[in-house]
Amino acid sequence: MDFFSKIFSIEEKTNIRIAGLTDDLFAVYLYNLFITKQKNVVVTLSNLYEANKLFDIIKNYTEDVLLFPMDDFLTSEAIAISPDLKLMRLETLNSLINNNKKIIITHLMGYLRFLPDPLIYQKKIITVKLNKEIKMEDFKKQLIEMGYSRESFVSQTGEFAVRGFVIDVFPVSYNNPIRLEFFGDVIEKIKSFAADTQRTLNNEKSINIYPFTEFLSNNDKIINEKQKYLSIINSHLFSLSNYCGNHYVVYKDIDQLKTINNNIQLDIIEFNIQKDSKFKGKYMFDFNDIKTENPIYYSSINNYDSKGNMLEYSSILVPEFRENINLFNKYI
């Protein structure tokens, strides 16, 4: 990436604005920022479609990229959050809580989402080791507090089952469920197994069980999984940025983000009046609530902004010639 490092030189300036990049070159710019500065990079886009698209492009350059997706406001409040999107968010938080440096791609709904205190989230993680003493009843209670549901059999992430002195659990970020065999209150065996056949796959020495909920509090109170209740039971509110340590934030098309934010806040007011008038708290952050140091603003070609320390690259897409020499000659 030395070639791109020279093109995309990252200087310590405030109010940096870049423009004139294709989608692929924008991805390269982000990757170069990431490897040059060795910090987390949070990229905020307008919608989930754009976030997915950028995520797929950056994956061509590195595996150190995560997606933090979120449903739209009305879906998350009036209906239910998507289990698949929830799992992706949790896997992202788990990676960040372990201080892994990543590029994190999100969109406005993910960026504004209430999250629990990172210290509480980290405190809830259970490390299970062979020959470790742990009371089964306490362990089952912990799993429930972490968002795991008790079932007759384990078949998918976020479930656990109990049979005698055996607890099966399917932790977040694991491809297969885990079987814990107890002798009294001592863990005698830890094995991964296939959910469909129950066949043992591997013996393990230790595992980490991460929360299966974004709704954690100091008082261990189990609450309805709607982000608005975090504003009631927790004294402080946290966002994705609070999980990223010392990091860069890159906003794509800041004016568009602000417009969408205003529309979301209007939707919230209307929903509260018509459907949820008894609730008096906040549903999510306002864009202006989240403060960042030295953000980077990327303006797409159709949203040019010349204010600040502007870096204009004027890149263009090269057409596909498909071995047509006439088109190639015409182009050059």
Radius of gyration: 23 Å
What is the class of the largest domain in the CATH system? Alpha Beta
Q: How many β strands by DSSP? A: 15
Count of structural domains: 2
Tell me the name of the CATH homologous superfamily of the largest domain.
Answer: P-loop containing nucleotide triphosphate hydrolases
Oligomer: single chain
What structural class do the secondary elements suggest?
alpha/beta
CATH second-level architecture of the largest domain: 3-Layer(aba) Sandwich
Unreliable stretches, pLDDT < 50, 5 or more residues?
Answer: none
Task: Give an overview of the whole structure.
The structure is a single chain. The chain has helices spanning 2-7, 23-37, 48-58, 73-79, 83-97, 108-111, 118-124, 136-145, 230-233, 254-275, 325-331; strands at residues 16-19, 40-45, 65-68, 103-107, 126-129, 149-150, 159-163, 166-169, 178-183, 186-193, 200-203, 206-209, 247-252, 296-299, 309-312. The protein is of the alpha/beta class and 332 residues long. The protein has a 7-stranded parallel β-sheet with strand order 3-4-2-13-14-1-15, sandwiched between helices. A hairpin with a 2-residue loop joins strand 7 (159-163) and strand 8. It is globular and about 60 Å long.
